[in-house]
Each structure stands twice: as C-alpha cells, then as structure tokens.
Write a structure and sequence with these properties.
- This protein is mostly helical and 335 residues long.
- The protein has helices spanning 2-28, 44-54, 60-84, 104-139, 144-158, 161-175, 192-229, 232-239, 244-282, 287-296, 300-328.
- Helix 1 (2-28) runs antiparallel to helix 11 (300-328), helix 6 (161-175) packs across helix 7 (192-229) and helix 6 packs across helix 9 (244-282).
Length: 335
C-alpha cells in the first residue's frame, strides 16, 4: 500500500506543474499591461516592489519560475515563521494583491474559515443523508420511497444554486423570518448565544449546497448498489444463510462504495466552485466571493493563486480517491 501511495504522489507532481504552467500562461499572456489596473493611489515604491515580485519586464519563463518559488517555497516559510517565530522569510518577496496591497495568501487564510464553515458542514450533511437514501432506495427499488427519492434528487440536481438560494431566502427569511438572509462574517463564536446565531445563519447556505450534494451522491449510491445486488456473490452469500443485514451492509456496501468514493472525493473541490455562487447569494465573505471580486477588479495575482489552489484541491482529492480505492479493493493497488 505504501508503494501504491508513493507512486500516486510522484504522478501528482508533474500534473501540478503542468496545471500551474497552463494557469500562468493563460493569465500572464493576456493582452495589456498587468500593472495598468493598479490604483493611482498606490505609492511608487509599492508598485516597484510589485513589479519586482512579479518579474515584470523579464521573459515569461523567469516570471513563471518566480511565481513557483513564491508559492511553493516562500509561502511555506511564512507559515513556519508564523507558528514557530522564526525569520526564514523576513526579506523575501511575496505575491501581492493589487486590490488590498497585502500578500495574497494572508487574505486567503483570512477568508478560508468562512468557506470551510459552510462548505464543510454542507458536505458532511449531504453525505450523511445521501448514503442511507441511496442504499435504501436500491434495496427497495421501485417502492414509494425510491420514487419519492428519485423525484427529489432529480429536482435538487437540476435546480441551480442561484435559483434555490433566492428561493430559500424568500421562503425562510422574507416570508417566515426564521433565518437571516445575509451571512455575518464578523460574528465570533464565544458563547452559547453566538453559537446559535452562527448555526442559524448557516442553515440556508448549507441547505442549498447539501441539496446538490445529496442529489448527486445518492443517485450514484443507488446505481452502484443495484449493480452489486444482482451479482453472483450476493446470491451465494444468501444461499449460505447469512443474514440479509450482513449481506447488504457488509458485502454489497463495500463493493458499491468503490465508484462512490470517486464521486465523494472529487466532489469536494467541485463544491468549492458551487460555493462561489452560493457565497454571492448569501453574502458569505469566503473564497468564492474573493475570486469573483478579484476577477472583477482584474487582480491578476489573486486570480492566479486562487485558481491554482482549486487545481491543487482537485489533484489532492484525486490522490485520496486512488488511495481509498486501494483500501476498498486490494486488487487495485497491484495493477
């Protein structure tokens, strides 16, 4: 298993380098002066430091190399300095946002907790609902539960978040007045009352995201369970006298989880993309809203960094899916 994991890690390195090159070229080779959108209020010394950090005026291979060094070498040193009080990155140039005139990664770290609160909770809730719904729908195929679940999941998967988000705001915030329509990112959880307020403002964005997650995963779970319920090993297990609960939840479920693991693992980076729209609807001051404002302001360093972070998430969770494959099916790790 260790050799299998190391092999996947080695394959991930050139993949990330190629993705970083594509992102860099798409943004850096766009027409126009990259510094043209910098506000006139930015002091000349700050502009010069930004030009030096970006390597402007130099060939694109040098600019690309500088960006790689800043992202993979300098930023980890900044993290080490923050936690251990060292000074490894004291005089190093960092990628600076043109909007805020501060390091890009500092802004990302500030916004990340808000996104994790919403996206992480929505994903956990969606998986906890989707798996049992998919399992029971397959076991009771064509029952009223299966038909109702199919209808709800098809609707949830078809409705875009910008529509479902506005709909829940109108129903639960405007009409019923149960939950706030705007997410208060300045709220700090310090006691029971603030925790209740935090949970209340999370209900609607989590509801919108969890609806899509549940709809997708439950359909994959149902299809995979149906495929395995008709296999020969299931009939053999039943003929040997195993309890139906053991047949379904031990033998069938483990084999059915192999394709579902891919959907769950690769869906995590995808839900960050879906959270971009949801964060705009509910005014969640997270990574998605940060990317939208950076695109609108032509903040090239911010867009470049966030896009690559999304790509890293996709490669990372693809790696996790491969490792989980090997744990669920030992045959895969020897291929």
């Amino acid at each position: 298993m260790l050799t299998f994991t190391i092999r996947r890690l080695v394959l991930a390195i050139p993949t990330l380098l190629f993705i970083s090159l594509v992102i860099f070229l798409l943004l850096e080779l766009a027409p126009g002066d990259p510094m043209a959108q910098v506000p006139l209020t930015v002091p000349p010394e700050v502009k010069e430091r930004m030009r030096e950090a970006l390597g402007l005026g130099q060939p694109w291979p040098i600019r690309y190399w500088k960006w790689l060094v800043q992202f993979f070498w300098i930023e980890p040193q900044v993290l080490i300095d923050y936690y251990f009080g060292t000074t490894f990155s004291a005089d190093d140039l960092r990628v600076i946002s043109w909007q805020t005139r501060s390091p890009v990664m500092d802004i990302v770290v500030q916004r990340l907790p808000q996104t994790l609160w919403v996206v992480g909770t929505a994903y956990v809730v969606g998986i906890l609902i989707a798996l049992p719904v998919g399992i029971y729908s397959a076991y009771r195929q064509y029952s009223w539960f299966d038909n109702a679940g199919t209808f709800v999941t098809m609707v949830g998967f078809s409705v875009p978040p910008f529509f479902s988000g506005v709909l829940v705001i109108v129903i639960f915030s405007v009409q019923l007045g149960w939950f706030p329509s705007i997410y208060d990112t300045t709220l700090r959880v310090t006691d029971w009352d603030s925790l209740v307020l935090q949970l209340q403002q999370m209900v609607m964005p989590v509801m919108v995201l969890a609806l899509q997650i549940t709809s997708q995963i439950s359909r994959f779970m149902r299809a995979s369970m149906l495929d395995n319920l008709n296999q020969d090993y299931v009939r053999t297990a039943r003929a040997k006298g195993l309890r139906e609960k053991s047949v379904v939840l031990v033998h069938v479920l483990r084999n059915s989880m192999i394709p579902v693991v891919t959907v769950i693992a690769l869906g995590i980076p995808g839900i960050f993309g879906g959270a971009i729209i949801t964060e705009q609807v509910f005014k969640v001051n997270g990574i998605g809203q940060l990317l939208i404002t950076a695109i609108q302001a032509n903040d090239l360093p911010m867009v470049q960094t966030l896009t690559f972070i999304f790509a890293v998430l996709i490669v990372l969770f693809n790696l996790i899916a491969d490792v989980l494959y090997g744990l669920l099916d030992p045959r895969i790790r020897y291929d």
